[in-house]
Amino acid sequence: MSAWRSLFTYNKYASITARALRASLKQEERVLAEKRGVTSVRYQKWENGVGGTQTLFDAQAVAAEQK
């Protein structure tokens, strides 16, 4: 059994290794890699078995509103 498995989940492990890899890249490649690392989330409210409109969740806008 790997030592990291006793400390955190696979998703956390993958996040840490990806961050370390991006940090080791040259400036130009690092910027491109960081852009690919941005994720987005869409959600929709379901009522009576019918899905509503999909809404893009913008975490930065929510964080700005909370400040």
Topology at a glance:
Blueprint (H helix, E strand, L loop, with lengths): L9 H15 L2 H10 L4 E3 L2 E2 L2 E2 L3 E3 L1 H8 L1
Antiparallel strand pairs: 1-4, 2-3
Family: Belongs to the eukaryotic ATPase epsilon family.
InterPro entries: ATP_synth_F1_esu_mt, ATP_synth_F1_esu_sf_mt
GO molecular function: proton-transporting ATP synthase activity, rotational mechanism
Tell me about this structure:
By secondary structure, this protein is of the alpha+beta class. It has one domain (10-63). It is built from 3 helices and 4 strands, in the order ααββββα. The chain has helices at 10-24, 27-36, 59-66; strands spanning 41-43, 46-47, 50-51, 55-57. A hairpin with a 2-residue loop joins strand 2 (46-47) and strand 3. The longest helix is centred in the N-terminal third of the chain and has 15 residues, at 10-24. It starts with 9 loop residues before the first helix and ends with a helix.
- Mean pLDDT, to the nearest integer, reads 80
Provide the structure class. Answer: alpha+beta
Distance between the termini: 44 Å
Helix and strand run: HHEEEEH
Helix segment tally: 3
Which ranges are low-confidence, i.e. pLDDT below 50, for 5 or more consecutive residues?
A: none
- Rg on CA atoms, Å: 18 Å
Number of strands: 4
> Helix share of residues?
40-55%
Range of strand content: 5-15%
Q: Which sheet architecture does the biggest sheet show?
A: 2 strands, antiparallel
Coarse shape: extended
Count the domains: 1
Strand arrangement across the biggest beta sheet: 1-4
Protein name: Mitochondrial ATP synthase epsilon chain domain-containing protein
GO cellular component, one term: mitochondrial inner membrane
InterPro entries: ATP_synth_F1_esu_mt, ATP_synth_F1_esu_sf_mt
Organism: Panaeolus cyanescens
